[in-house]
Amino acid sequence: MWKRRALGWLFVCIIGLALLLVRLMEIQLIKTETFSKHNVNLLEESVKQRTQELVIDNGRGNFLDRNGNMLTHKKISVLVLFPFLKKIDWDVKKVSEITGISENVLKMAVEGAKKPFAFGDLKPLELTSSQMERINQLNIPGVFAIEKKFERSQIPAEQLIGLTGENPEEVKKRYPAKELSEKTLLGVSGLEQSFDEFLLPEGKSKLVYHVDGSGGPLFGINVKYVDPANPFYPVNVRTTIDKSIQQKAEDLVDKYQIKKGGLVLLNIEDNSILAMVSRPSINKKDPYSGAGITNKMLKQQIVGSVFKTVVAAAAIDNDLDNPMRQFDCSKKINGKPEVKYNYGMLNFTNSFARSCNRTFGELAKELQKKDASSLEDYAEKLALTNSVGWYGDVYHTSDFRQLPDEDTGRVFVSDAARKDANMAAMSGIGQNEVRATPLAVANMMATIARGGKKEMVRAVSKIEYKNGTTMVTFPVQKLKGDTISPYTSMKLQKLLREVVTNPNGTGRWFKDLPYEAAGKSGTAETGKYVAGKQLHNKWFAGYFPYKNPKYALVAVNLDVYDSEGGVNLLFADMVRMLYENDHD
């Protein structure tokens, strides 16, 4: 009997040991990188228990402005101290003399530390090059002067640049063939997302030392520098943004209290984004809540009278711009008396300058009668309804898009609307179903200023390796499709200038700017009401200097009362700022 019980217990023990052995094999050999339902990397966690480290650079690629200035991060020369200093006798007096920090403050900082740190934490003490050199010459173990990469608290063009985040599941989904840590930062919006594959880290640059159970040095007090050792990474994505202009543009948008809207500034010569501001801003505490993460400059909006530029182009090509013809601008688009905007009889040029709805409603109906697709065709010729961001083949990626979140625009939604005369009239003044992005509107102005040359808009000019050599370039490229003729462009240029120079023009506020400007205003009805009052989209889109175009600019304030605005003052101050910037 006792033998049977002994054999039973022996059998149970063997089974238990076998299960334990299987479990140990699973932990030690099989699921070392994906243990448990949380996919814990046991190798990484084991190393963490035996080491303490200070990350100098997370290894993800950087964004630069067109002049090579860092946009998302900055490098600061800092004093680094390691916790094991509390266990050894170190020359705190000399470090104090060089840095100007009292000995007691330095000692207290070390005593309270559980891991290596840059002195000052979130607001680190910034050392001079001389201080760095003197500190490192002391050769004190655990005391270093290094250049560390810090994320900026305020990132210029934040919606355009985008956000990053950790997402273990997305890492595997997006890059199944790559061996990446589950804590790898991924781009989740903006350029961070579209350029994510180029920005992935090869590894971190860090200072590391091994510790025992009490946190003391395990193998002496030598700190090891660990680097990916690839001289080509991390890469730098050189954007077309001008950091200085971008910051001033953001300040002006906030000065004029643009709560929903912003501006787009293009360099006409190479059709690139110099500045892009979108409001509301991103909520730093909870970035994915609210509307802040959405780049309003890439989303379709109701454009209002800015669309009259498209109607004017079609009218010119169809000989409907006879200067002798008079339009009755004492009437609304539906033929009823116009009380608020009674301009009397106006010709084509004055109708454009004063933005007469009656004129462009009639012209749109006449164009629709000739060809139901006329308005859409000219909107496409001016790239108002197309995707205008840079796209093309890059390495193994076909149809790579710098701005994948960009909306396309539209004129009509249905064929029935396209063939309806009343719908055409409303579309002729930029209402009804007409939509376009502020970026596309800015590109339309740049296209007109260049004499009809239609080009893709670039946000990035090239990607550079760490050593400064070029990895890939994004050249200036033409947009596909027909465009307007140089003659039509010239006529549109004169009309846009008339808006500013005409004493009654809707852009007369810009007549005395240091750069001669040309452009078109827009006030679009949104169909949204607050306290019984309708909200509007307020626009001014144009380019300058008029004779030698350099900049295309769009300022827009969305969902505001008709009496509100800010776009005229914003546009004017942007022109003044750029003039001063160019003449410093």
Q: Provide a count of the helices.
A: 19
- The CA-CA distance between the termini, in Å, is 104 Å
| Strand segment tally | 21
Mean pLDDT: 88
Category by helix and strand content:
alpha+beta
Task: Say what oligomer this is.
Answer: single chain
Poorly predicted runs of 5 or more residues = 38-49
The Rg value, from CA coordinates, equals: 31 Å
Largest sheet: 5 strands, antiparallel
Task: Give the strand line-up of the largest sheet.
Answer: 12-11-21-20-19
Helix content: 25-40%
Q: What percent strand?
A: 15-25%
Query: What spatial form do the alpha-carbon principal axes imply?
Result: elongated
Short description:
By secondary structure, the protein is of the alpha+beta class.
Can you give a write-up of this model?
- Residues 38-49 have low confidence and may be disordered.
- The strands form 7 sheets. Strands 12-11-21-20-19 form a 5-stranded antiparallel β-sheet, with helices on both faces.
- It has 584 residues and is α+β, with helices and mostly antiparallel strands.
- 42% of the residues are buried.
- Helix 10 (243-255) runs antiparallel to helix 19, helix 11 packs across helix 14 and helix 11 (308-317) packs across helix 18.
- It has helices spanning 2-30, 42-50, 92-99, 103-111, 129-137, 158-161, 168-174, 190-194, 196-199, 243-255, 308-317, 348-354, 357-370, 374-381, 415-418, 421-428, 438-449, 486-501, 567-582; strands at residues 51-57, 62-64, 73-81, 117-118, 143-151, 164-166, 185-187, 205-210, 224-226, 236-239, 261-267, 272-279, 327-328, 345-346, 391-394, 397-401, 460-464, 470-473, 518-530, 533-544, 551-561.
- The protein is built from 19 helices and 21 strands.
- Helix content is 33%, strand content 21%.
